[in-house]
Amino acid sequence: MDQFLENLNDAQREAVIFGEGPLLVLAGAGSGKTRVLTHRVAHIVARGDAEPFEITAVTFTNKAAREMRERAETLVRDGRGLGGAFLGTFHRWALEVLRRWPEAAGLPRRFSILDPDDQRALMTRLLKEERIDTKDHPPRAVLGRISGHVNRMEGVERLEARSGDNRAQITARLWNRYTKEKKALGAVDFDDMLAQTLDVLRREEVVRKAVMRRARYLLVDEFQDTNKLQMKMLLTVLAGGGNITAVGDEDQSIYRWRGAEMDNILGFEKHFAGAHIVSLERNYRSTQPILEASGALIAQNIRRHGKTLFTEQDGGEPVRLFVADDERHEARWTVDRISELESEHGLGEMAVLMRTNAQTRPFEEELMRRRIAYRVVGGLRFWQRAEVKDALAYLRQVVRPDDEVAFRRVVNVPARGIGAATIDVLKKHAAGAKALLPVAARDLPESLMPRARVALGRYFELLDEAQSQREILDPADFVGWLLETTGLLGLYDGDEEEKVVRRENLRQLASAVAEASAQGQTLEDFLDGVALFEDSDEETSPDVVRLMTLHGAKGMEFDVVFVAGMEDGLLPHANSREEEEGVEEERRLAYVGMTRARRWLGLTAARRRFLFGQSQNTQLSRFLLDISADQFEDVSDQPWQMAPSDEPEEFGTVVASRGRHQQRSAGSADSAPPIPSRRSTGRKIGAVVTDGSGVGWRPGDRVRHRRFGTGVVLSCRGRGPQLQLVVYFDRGGRKTLVPTIAKLEKL
Ligand code: ATP
Ligand code: MG
Predict the structure, then answer these.
(1) Are 20 and 124 members of one domain?
(2) Is the beta carbon of 29 within 6 A of some atom in ligand 1?
(3) Which of 44, 175, 66, 181 minimizes the C-alpha distance to 114?
(4) Which of 3, 60, 284 to mutate to test ligand 1, by most ligand atoms within 8 A of the CB atom?
(5) Torsion over CA of 386, 388, 390 and 396, rounded to 10 degrees?
(6) Burial group, residue 477, by CB count within 10 angstroms (0-12, 13-18, 19+)
(7) What pLDDT band is residue 136 in, cutting at 50, 70 and 90?
(8) b or e along 703-728 (b: 16 or more beta carbons within 10 Å of the residue's beta carbon)?
(9) Residues near 487 by Cβ (< 8 Å), separated by ≥ 6?
(10) Among 187, 509, 567, 671, which has the minimal tally of Cβ within 10 Å of its Cβ?
(11) Phi and psi (nearest 5°) for 616?
């Protein structure tokens, strides 16, 4: 037996050595799914079932792909290596196809890639040209809508057909312009990469065959987050046969807003007839208390297979709950714990996870004050910083002289007197010459103002000189030369901190290019890599605390995890109200966060929070009600109690209020959440009231309604046939019901 099969349990081994045909590994967090995928790749190669170049493994992030390569390479001992295997994200996979067969997709040989920043710039320009108010139609929102349609594979015709719908009409108009503009620019955005690849795969047999050959074994991690486009790509490449290995967990599906379809995983057998399904039940990641609390939470979701998870790790620290006075207090408590736990776990093993990027600031301030090293993952990304993007635009111009996006970005950086008026003149000239703007501009048309003409001439001289320098200099020196000669570095002369930082960023870019070239990459490869770069890829010194969003934490694990902002409106996020399944998705997000923890998990909330420019009272997350009182330890200064709020709240059910420690009978296995009734009424905590048919009810009871799904009883009014229950439903929000008439089922 292969040596590495020893480090697997029976179910994992079954999946790793499984032969041909479709295979689904459906299992909970931390059960070793990613480990199975990695081992399976190694095993296929080691056993000689396939050559490395016949393996395609699609992971969710570049980082996961890198780890898979590293791990699999150490597993394949006989030195055959994994050289030819494709390991990477869906986008990377698609980009390789388009780079190899651009003409099949109707793209120029050196098409460029629009990153989200470029997309926004382009959409802003189109909105302006179309005279559409960006307040009513913010560029991001328009792009988001278009992206949603593309990922659900809905064409623009569908929108156009909705003649009475003004917003649909505007979106359709912008979408058409956007498509046309990208074509004129010879550029693709991230969605196009997938959509156009699918298109090529379907149309061009040669391409399809070639891709299929490289995907004799096709493995996909985090399968629950695949969307329709990605699924179609898989189905096209597998063409009814093939060896797909999908691993995933429907409870961790968190990209519905990007079109992820849980049906892909829940209906796997429909898509892949005769699929073999393996479930993994042993969790290797977390301690018992962490598993129990997260398990109780996710058990409240309806749309799921339902799975069991157990751990053999005995004992463990209880899950902590801390309700702070405000967000600064929340940060202080968290950082206190971080410094206490540092000696045992190290900073690199700790993460603070949150729903929104905006929550990081107080944590940053506190960490800074205490001089604890941290990094915000997913803040303004290195490659998105203005100075870095400018430098990249110059590089793009050198590699691809007709890159219009890059041209527009830097033709006047530093300022050369080539303004909007000049660009307009050039646009007209380009239209007449039927050429791309940066190409036509080289004519230095007579219609330009003399000064602009001279300036433009100099700009092109600079680019030409850059072309020849590129031949002579090594890549790092070339970038250094370019930064100096273009005057980009000079823009940030001076001692102000901001300028020093920007100069430093530009130097970092030069070293990144040097590093890439040391690994044999061309400048073109490097620029592709940058376009697909994700924040999680960024190299960090290992010993820093990470601050990141729950979305960004998928697939990762840390010894110590804090899930911050456990408040209604944040988690679940207020936006999720609008969506029927929104709350379930938010619960999955909370579940993903909690299950990142190996040994120590803290949940925090604030009674007041500064939101939208003012300090507001908050309500504790309803998800805390899903976890029973004996599954966490409340360590708040003023232990909280949960009480239904008096005002008819639109959203959220529970207010945090100062008061007595909530009553918690030791060792009680009662899973009813701890909701004392309102203090104002003086009613006994949890008093049971019977309804017309003799069934007893009390606040905290979990119920199910035919239409609204599951919910929790907040309060009882009246008794007997007059008994009314105020219930908060996952899907329906707050409702007042007579239990016998509503046919409420007690869970
Ligand atoms: P997630 O759902 O969060 O993506 P996962 O199911 O992919 O989790 P992994 O990340 O593969 O889980 O594994 C979780 C942890 O458990 C890792 O640290 C992994 O090394 C460890 N692990 C998994 N299987 C075993 C095993 N058989 N023996 C020892 N450790 C294991
Ligand atoms: Mg995983």
Answers:
(1) no
(2) yes
(3) 181
(4) 284
(5) -140
(6) middle
(7) confident
(8) bebeebbbbbbbbbeeeeeebbbbbb
(9) 414
(10) 671
(11) -130, 150
Q: Of 185, 203, 238, which residue constitutes the final position of a domain?
A: 185
Q: Which of 12, 34, 236, 245 is catalytic?
A: 34
DSSP-derived 3-state class of residue 222:
coil
Whether the CB-CB separation of 229 and 259 falls below 8 Å is answered with: yes
> Residue 95: its pLDDT value, please?
94
Cα of 591 vs centre of ligand 2, distance in Å, is 14
385 neighbors 640 (Cβ within 8 angstroms): no
pLDDT per residue over 690-722, tens digit each?
Answer: 888 888 888 778 888 887 788 888 777 777 777
Distance in angstroms (rounded) separating the CA atoms of residues 698 and 702: 10
Query: Catalytic residue at 221?
Result: yes
Ligand 1 in reach of 533 Cβ (< 6 A): no
For 557, half-sphere exposure in the C-beta direction (CA atoms, 13 angstrom radius) is: 17
Looking at the CA of residue 556, tell me the nearest atom of ligand 1. Answer: 3
Cβ of 285 below 6 Å from ligand 1:
yes
The angle at the Cα of 403, spanning 400 to 409, to the nearest 5 degrees, equals: 125
Which of 282, 355, 596, 622 is flagged as catalytic? 596
Cα 289 to middle of ligand 2, angstroms: 21
Secondary structure of 691-727 in the HEC alphabet?
A: ECCCCEECCCCEEEECCCEEEEEEEEECCECCCEEEE
9 pocket-lining for ligand 1 (C-beta < 6 Å)? yes
Q: Could you tell me the residue range of the domain that residue 709 belongs to? A: 684-746
Q: What are residue 400's phi and psi, to 5 degrees?
A: -140, 90
Same domain? For 205 and 236 the reply is yes
Ligand 1 pocket, residue 279 CB under 6 Å: no
Distance CA 314, CA 307 (A): 20
- Residue 210's beta-bridge partner residues? none
Torsion sign over Cα 219, 222, 223, 228: negative
Atom number, ligand 1, closest to the C-alpha of residue 592? 3
**Residue 325 C-alpha to ligand 1 middle, in angstroms?**
37
* Minimum CA distance residue for ligand 1 atom 30: 284
pLDDT digits (tens, 9 = 90+) for 603-650: 999 999 877 666 788 889 999 988 888 888 999 887 765 444 433 333
CA 346/CA 340 separation, integer angstroms: 10
Give distance in angstroms: CA of 33 to centre of ligand 1: 6
The residue contributing the CA closest to ligand 1 atom 18 is: 285
Whether residue 677 is contained in a domain is answered as: no
The pTM assigned to this predicted structure is 0.76
Look up residue 581 and give its two tokens. 């399944």
- Going from the C-alpha of 257 to that of each of 167, 225, 226, 260, 360, the distances in angstroms are 19, 10, 12, 7, 22
**Cβ–ligand 1 contact at 593 (below 6 Å):** no
Among residues 185, 202, 224, the one where a domain terminates is 185
Has 34 been annotated as catalytic? yes
Out of 284-288, 367-371, 587-591, least confident range = 367-371
Whether ligand 1 lies within 6 angstroms of the CB of 35 is answered as: yes
Judgement on whether residues 402 and 497 belong to the same structural domain of the protein: yes
Ligand 2 centroid vs 399 CA: distance in angstroms? 37
62 Cβ below 6 A of ligand 1: no
Q: Do 494 and 460 reside in the same domain of the chain?
A: yes
Measured in Å, residue 222 CA sits from the centre of ligand 2 at: 7
Number of domains the chain is built from: 5
Q: Is residue 287 part of a domain?
A: no
Task: State in Å: Cα 12 to ligand 1 middle.
Answer: 10
Question: Quick check: CB of 8 below 6 Å from ligand 1?
Answer: yes
- The question of whether 119 is a catalytic residue gets the answer no
Q: Which of 280-289, 386-395, 506-515, 546-555 has the lowest mean pLDDT?
A: 506-515
Q: Is 210 helix (H, G, I), strand (E, B) or coil?
A: helix
